[in-house]
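User: My notes are a mess, but here's the protein and copper (II) ion's SMILES. Can you give me a structure?
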Amino acid sequence: MIKTPFALDAASASAQPVVTLSWALFIGGGLILLLVLVMIAIAVCGPRRWRRVLAREKVIIGLGFAFPLVVLSGLLVLGLTMTAGLASSKPKPDALMITVQGEQWWWRINYDGFETANELVIPVGRPVRLNLVSDNVIHSFWVPQLGGKRDMIPGHSNYLNIQADKAGNFFGICSEYCGGPHALMQFRVIALPPEQYTQWEAAQRLPANAPSGNIATRGADNFLKLGCGVCHNIEGTLAQGTSGPDLTHLGSRNTIGAAILPMDEHNIAQWTRHADTIKPNNKMPPYSYLQTGEIDDIAYYLARLK
Ligand SMILES: [Cu+2]
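Assistant: No problem, the inputs look usable. Here's the predicted complex:
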């Protein structure tokens, strides 16, 4: 399985206040819990003299009423001021527009002119405006290190501005229960330096590269013959389905199955054979009845669609 990075390692200016506030709450809350535990211990089994102090009216009013009032009011003001900027959803000039659609249980990602899945590739340092939609149930797009979380609601567009301030591969997950393998509905945000992003984008706009060699040709034929193209699109071929992830440049991605398995030929074959055990109840039928060679050829072909 793929390593999950630490959610509190902020990679964006908008994630920083959330991280700072989280630490303030963890540490402050921890200290207060400690204080409470010590006082309970004293009240239960401390020396009589100390217990008498604890029972004083002043102590009860001070620690039981005034202290929480001051602390909670302070936190409210701190929380509201620190996170004030996050709620803004105004478009920024020169923002890159990308539509992300929550599917059961993967992410359809539409750039202007091409489609991909489960990996949102963005340029470092440029604001990105996400149009978050769904045509099934409610999902929630969440990428902790970039400070972004917003619901995807059927029949409604929600917008979220994100920006990565450093290159990296950031973990994301659906954070609104959407049935079935919801916990396995993960994704990645991959922030590339601008030149690399431009190259990536240009390559994604092209149709799939024609396979070379016998194995790849057999794989491409099997793919069509077995009906995979009913659900999957491979641009430039007869496979034009849209209910499953676009596979035109599958080999250029880092993961498969909504970011639950590393991308490689072996995992593509395993997925095709046992999609139902790898991700129970997902919408792709398993092909365990096929002969090993048939699937291996398809995996060889798909892994080379860069
Ligand atoms: Cu979900």
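The first helix runs from residue 16 to 45.
User: Great, I'll file this with my notes.
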